[in-house]
Amino acid sequence: MIVAFVSKKGGVGKTTSAVNVAAVLARLGHRTLLVDLDSQASASLSLGVARADLAPSAYDLLFAKRPAAEIVRRTATPNLDLVTASVDLVAADLDLAPLRDRELVLGRQLAPLRAAYEWILLDCPPALSVVPLSALAAADGCVVPVVPQPLAWEGVDLLLAAVSRLRERFGTGPRLLGLLLTMADSRTRLARETTRLLRERFGDRLFTAAVPVCTRLAEAPAWGRPLVEAEPESRAALAYAAAARELIDRSASGETGPASKIGVLGTDPARHG
Question: Residue 214 contacts by C-beta under 8 Å, 6 or more apart in sequence?
């Protein structure tokens, strides 16, 4: 299954979530591939790849510059492979722009890899430009990290509207597997109230698991290891372990519907006429 971790907003824990969920899936015995599509290469660096060693990267995969076997690399985590990002991805939107059906390019390149992996996780750049739209078109499902802050749902509404447009144009688009609450600080009244509003607004589309604020999450990339491996008993690591298991259950059960059927206010049109 291909799952895009996507957010229009930066700083919501998207990459951290993709890296740690991928590591948990791998540790549970699932053959997993993480594809870093963000030119900042934070996911790649978080898994111990030196900046000087990022090539070949997802850019080469997008444009079929090398066979996939030469681009995919193993990580120190058993069952977890990686396609790195590189600075070349800065130009990917411009290079894709002249191509017909450019939003479908990534899906074509990932198709041969499906048979080798139970899970392919895509860490998308924080935007709704060609590369993340191509990731959404390639994905079977998407996970949207959300921070409990005022107007947190605004970016979610725009994202779901983009998925709806993809379905209208190409007949393809991911199922919303859920919104993952990150940086949840139950100590503050504002965070508690925003979390309550998010749960009211999105209902069971919000993961039960919520990732708490944790200073170790900010430090983990410097270790070159996911937090779930470096400090598996920390609250944030346990939350990601729970989120990964919940992702497995949601993907198997069809618990949430196609993202295109979720209105731009996060409501289900079927429920609200």
Answer: 227, 234, 235, 236
What is the DSSP code string of 11-48? Answer: SSSHHHHHHHHHHHHHHTT--EEEEE--TT-HHHHHTT
Q: pTM of the full predicted structure?
A: 0.90
* Closest of 236, 218, 158 to residue 11, by C-alpha: 218
CATH class of 2-261: alpha beta
What ranges do the domains of the chain cover?
2-261
Q: How confident is the model at residue 156 (pLDDT cuts 50, 70, 90)?
A: confident
- Prior bond of 56 cis (ω within 30°): yes
CA gyration radius, the chain: 17
Give the bridge partners for 82, in sequence order.
34, 73
Among positive and negative, which fits the CA dihedral 154, 159, 165, 171?
Answer: negative
Q: Between 166 and 87, name the one with better pLDDT.
A: 87
Give the 3-state secondary structure of residue 208: strand
> Residues with Cβ < 8 Å from 97, sequence gap 6 or more?
130
Summarised one tens digit per residue, pLDDT across range 38-63 is: 999 999 999 999 999 999 999 999 99
pLDDT band at residue 254 under the 50/70/90 scheme: low
